[in-house]
Amino acid sequence: GIEFSLDSKMAQRGALTRRHHREDDGAAAAAAAEEDDTEKYNRLTLMEEVLLLGIKDQEGYTSFWNDCISSGLRGCMLIELALRGQVELEKNGMRKRALATRKLLAKESKGDRPTGDVLLDEAVKHIQTTDPPEGVQDWIELLSGETWNPLKLRYQLRNVRERLAKGLVEKGVLTTEKQNFLLFDMTTHPVTDQSTKDRIIKKIQDSVLSKWQNDITRMDKRTLALIYMAHASDVLENAFAPLSDDEYETAMKRVRELFDVDPDEESCKPGANEVLWAVVAAFLK
Question: How far is CA 283 from CA 68, 228, 269, 276, 279, in A?
């Protein structure tokens, strides 16, 4: 449709302008297609991206041995809320305090569904209604249900992996199957839209290879968070598996550089997201 109408307009112009316009229009159409693609891709939350990295394509479940992904996904939620402007760390007083000692606060939000994402809404509601407030490390544990205090068990978000997988089924990225294991039936979610998963993998690879910035402050915050949280969830390795030996070595060297930073220092730099660094600090310590 677009190309046809553009071509018919072009037919009325001279040869020179025709060539220029065709080049411009080609570039514009490509940019629009890419933007449309990015839009669709950006609809995935950090939690969904990390889960997708962890899900085995054909089998449709995360590794049974992975016990990090549960708390990793909670970290993703806090960063996702921060990137959407829903939560922040309490202000520093006269003295600068370590990220680990500062409490997490919910910003004023309008309506009952501040984020439009069920899991994020649940998490932000807990943060809003908790008095006195808790720190980031505490929230990761509370939302995971890792608490000895029976009064605090109500903060646990249940069936997070299954609910995230169902969301990805609705978005057409995963599908649902029943697998019969020896003693039980299990619902699995194999990958149907491989291109979406490949794009996440490529985004991570590019960020530490062809698009490496050498300066964390210039890295895209979402991509940076994805690398840290994929590592915290023990699924980062899956993004690097397809690389050649040389690329793998370079990628891992740069990832190690990211893990060697001081989150407290990074959080003071202009434009930094304090909650992102507080979550990273909780997992790197």
Answer: 10, 9, 20, 11, 7
